[in-house]
């Protein structure tokens, strides 16, 4: 049986409010960072999740250890309070986001290289065409 769990952490990162979506599936962690403008209300976050969750671009999966949650309700309440007080994202989440940034960077480099080569080829073809036109009249 495959288990999947997800969480959304919203915190203030100067000067914007940021949301971190963390999804753990099959022992692998994927992360997506979303920047909100002003402080989002609960209903705005819920609306955002409902409308945009499937269009989010998650980072590549990173291996992680899944801890068994305690069934004791008091312990769950303490853990929830502790999570609310701590701000920021975990190191595994940071690694996943960094991997995503690196992936996007290499993708952008490939695209810009193709564009540069296409422009170079176009200029070359234009020069060749001009040379041929000069010699047509002779």
Notes on the protein architecture:
This protein has three helices and four strands; from the N terminus they run βββαβαα. The chain has 138 residues and is of the alpha+beta class. It has a four-stranded antiparallel β-sheet. A hairpin with a 2-residue loop joins strand 1 (4-13) and strand 2 (16-25). The chain is elongated.
Strand content: 15-25%
Low-confidence stretches: none
Structural class designation: alpha+beta
User: Which descriptor suits the 3D outline?
Assistant: elongated
Kindly, what is the distance between the CA atoms of the first and last residues, rounded to a whole number of angstroms? 80 Å
Looking at the chains present, what oligomeric state does this protein adopt? single chain
Strand order of the largest sheet: 1-2-3-4
Give a count of the beta strands, DSSP E runs of length 2 or more. 4
Helix % is 40-55%
Biggest sheet, in brief? 4 strands, antiparallel
C-alpha-based Rg, rounded: 25 Å
Provide the descriptors you would attach to this structure in a database record:
elongated, 3 helices, 51% helix, alpha+beta, four-stranded antiparallel β-sheet
